[in-house]
């Protein structure tokens, strides 16, 4: 049974207050006279939990406030994990461009390990040969221009279905957020799994699958207590996090097993088009990954079933919430700025002319639409915090080091 985390957090807070009498938070400043170690500045922290209580429910906003007070590079302690936060363009450029190799790996996050088959995906996999080869597969075979173009029919059909739903609901209250989430998930599902009607047992309208996927994305970003303070691991059981993680993983894993098994059985009926062939086919991501597994043995990469599942979840998670979030914010901003909305409507109507509907060929003639999307992503980035990185060697960032 899932238990509200309030009681566990209250217990932790009381314990922290008791320990506060015996231990005070310290304000870390760069040590003087030591040319080898210069720690970034750090705000005062709580015992055991470090700076976690400071982050709140909107950590990206709190981190912006902390950066304004302590600098664009600061040291936080998230439980037992020391974490350097970079929050300026200069710091990001140095970490992700100038010293990219040093900052190229990923930490072994507990939830990613449990939900993504022990780090067999791309987004959370540690830097190494497997990550390089898996990333090459995604860039060349899954996200290349020809592969993206092959799903044009699916995109246009789902857009038409979304417009039809909106017209049907015209005159009443419309939950546009839900419609946009269903739209983005439908496109990614067709690209990833094909046109097959895959779902969970007893899930007629797909609502159960949507809830499971929402739980999956929520859990993937969660910070279990056993990762922050191992001796408090029992809290995860008490709050129901352990049971929810197991239940969600089993549901997703069962679905992926059925999808892969169905694709393998269909492939026995005939030879598939090679992943790097010249024929414009409509294979989905599972077909492509199964083909790559047969073709790329000379590279040393072995895409076993768990690897295919993990990469599929990367594609699904990375393409659903981000797309629907940007679309939702774009519509909200346009409704709050009616002059800009009318200007965009005029551009769309002038571009499509007598066609009566928007096709992908029309997009090149809509510069204002592209500007609206770019401004929306600037104001409301769908992922304000990047996936954490882990250093592979001793390095520095804007003159700070020793962490």
Poorly predicted regions are 9-33, 273-280
Report the principal-axis shape: globular
Mean pLDDT: 82
Task: Kindly name the structural category.
Answer: mainly alpha
Reading the helices and strands in chain order gives: HHHEEHHHHHHHHHHHHHHEE
| CATH level 3 topology of the largest domain | Cytochrome p450
Approximate helicity band: 55-70%
Main sheet, how many strands, which sense, barrel?
2 strands, antiparallel
Domain count, please report it: 3
Number of helices: 17
Strand content: under 5%
For the secondary structure, the number of strands is: 4
How large is the radius of gyration? 24 Å
CATH superfamily of the largest domain: Cytochrome P450
Task: Report on this structure.
- GO terms for molecular function: heme binding; iron ion binding; monooxygenase activity; oxidoreductase activity, acting on paired donors, with incorporation or reduction of molecular oxygen.
- With 403 residues, this protein is mainly alpha-helical.
- The protein folds into three domains: 18-107 and 388-401, no CATH class; 134-319, Cytochrome P450 (Cytochrome p450), CATH 1.10.630.10; 337-386, no CATH class.
- Helices cover 55% and strands 4% of the residues.
- It has 17 helices and four strands.
- It has helices spanning 6-20, 52-55, 59-70, 89-98, 110-115, 129-142, 145-150, 152-168, 176-193, 207-220, 225-228, 234-238, 241-267, 285-295, 305-336, 338-352, 367-379; strands spanning 73-78, 81-86, 396-397, 400-401.
- Strands 1-2 form a two-stranded antiparallel sheet. A two-stranded antiparallel ribbon has the order 3-4.
- Strand 1 and strand 2 form a beta hairpin.
- The longest helix is centred in the last third of the chain and has 32 residues, at 305-336.
- Mean pLDDT is 82; it is low at 9-33 and 273-280.
